[in-house]
Amino acid sequence: MARTAQRRGVVAAVLGLILSVGSMSAPPAAAHTFTKSDGNDSPGRLDIKSASVKHGSTSVIHTIKTYEGWSAASLEDDSDFVIAIDKNFDDDFELCAIVLYVRTLRAALTNCGSRLIRTLSVSKPSATTVKVRLPEGQLTPAYRWVAFSFWTGAPARCANTCVDTAPNSPPPILHDLTAPKISNIVIPQNSESAPLTADSLVSFQVSDGAHGAGVRRWSVERRPLGETTWTEVASGSDEGPQDLAIPGSEGSMYEFRIRAEDLQGNRRISATFESFIPFDDETGITYDGPGGASDWTDQSGSGHFLSGYHESSVVGATFDVTFEGTICFFGGPTAATVNVTIDGVPPQGASIWSTAVARDEIICYGGVGAGSHALTAEIASGTVVLDAYLVYPA
Fold first, then answer.
1. For position 28, what pLDDT does the model report?
2. Final residue of a domain: which of 126, 155, 176?
3. pTM exceeds 0.90
4. 198: CATH
């Protein structure tokens, strides 16, 4: 690998030029590309036209294209390609992939000095193209790289060696192997108090790391519980915390997930989260009493879920509702004794409905088996303030 040692000084000199702008720990958007085009700017036969990279299943494939055609055998006389990799973001090249000719086209991974690390898979799919496959295990999740070509063959167009690089100026090309991170996800199935509107509250954070390519886009997807088709309901491109209120409809049961993609196409999908929206006190409930429905006062105004709430202190006033699964009632301030039956049978547990906080969860009933059930509640004493109710599936 004597030729590798000969190239070390040239590579180091070009590295100093390309990194002369200083640390690139937060590279600009220009670095976030798969392909870097290069002008027809070197007289050598290996004048680089483009340098690109893409993921394989367990490796990264670097491709260099030239303006002119060349033969594999022409790389025998100190003409070669070098892919120099700064994997530690420390303004130094730790790895060099060398493409050269030794009885056949070969590629080797070195320490950019005289130490051979391993041989590499290399191919020449066209007269102007070479592809080198680097195992992911030799790389870091994100790294910077520069492609070099050295030409000393015929025709001799340079006094010594024709050298070309891609890129010719900072920054080096960034390659990011990892998908953005989606963290701090909070999508309450429900809260301890009924909301004011029929929204699902969705909070999360998207980031691509200090050396990542940057977030291209994130999106929030929703589908009704039990269905298979996802619908996008929110999107953005900014990193950092997101706190969203996703409009829905009362009584809906949703599943949510979050997608994120970075500027180099890496994608991640979060786990799925459920969110249930209450029914309003006006929906699906029949109010009655000794004096009829007028025993309940229909109160409207702000500070309550959707339309308002129902309130009664009349002994014997009732309401009826049907449900499947588990039903939870929200309201307050409430302090009452309520006689409850489900399908005509009193449920186990206390009949005291009490909370000092408006829209707070008062009490839940469930565990009564599959199918539809009829619940009747009758006031024995005190005051019931009913704002909303929530139904969880069985």
1. 33
2. 176
3. no
4. 2.60.40.10
Residue 239 confidence (pLDDT) above 90: yes
Cα separation, 10 vs 12, in Å, equals 5
Domain that holds residue 251: 181-277
* pLDDT score of 309 more than 80: yes
Tens digits of residue pLDDT in 316-331: 999 999 999 999 999 9
For residue 125, give the amino acid letter. P
The rounded radius of gyration (Å) of the Cα atoms in the chain is: 34
- Cβ–Cβ under 8 Å, residues 151 and 158: yes
What does the pLDDT read at residue 14? 43
Contact assessment for residue 255 and residue 220, using Cβ atoms and an 8 Å cutoff? no
Check if the beta carbon of residue 25 is closer than 8 Å to that of residue 89: yes
Are residues 313 and 376 located together in one domain of the fold?
yes
Question: Are residues 253 and 361 located together in one domain of the fold?
Answer: no
Nearest 5 degrees, angle CA 137-CA 143-CA 149? 100
**Is the separation of the CB atoms in 129 and 67 below 8 Å?**
no
